[in-house]
Write a structure and sequence with these properties.
It is a single chain. The protein has helices spanning 9-49, 87-93, 100-103, 113-132; strands at residues 61-68, 73-80, 95-96, 106-107. Helices cover 54% and strands 15% of the residues. It is built from 4 helices and 4 strands; from the N terminus they run αββαβαβα. Helix 1 runs antiparallel to helix 4 (113-132). The chain has a domain at 41-132. A two-stranded antiparallel sheet has the order 1-2. It has a two-stranded antiparallel ribbon with strand order 3-4. The two termini are 40 Å apart. It is an alpha+beta fold.
Length: 134
Amino acid sequence: MNMAVKIDMETLAMELMASIDKYSEEVIEELEEYMEVLGDQTAEMLEVISPRRYGDYAESWISTVRRDERKQRIYGTIYNSGFEHYLTWLLELGHKARNWEMNRRMVRAIPHIIPQEKEAREALAAYIEHEILS
């Protein structure tokens, strides 16, 4: 009894491509969901550790995730949406004091964005390595 089944190579290739596309879409959706959760966690952490001298700077952190189908990429962005959004890099890196010409004084930096960005990048890399590639 011969149980051999003849399969056209073109049909086999089409079925393989369909399976790979379905798997790729599932992985992309899973990664996109994780990036949304990670972005929200990072934005919440920035709200906790941001300077609170005045205004709504600390409470204005927002996370977004966007997929670019054409380039086949997912972009995650965390930004300060409030009126004081221009303070982000002044606070993060420090700046010249208001009366710079008189005393050459610098306002000290309050690093709060870069450490959170590094932590989020490491968490995303670990997730991809352990959950998707394994």
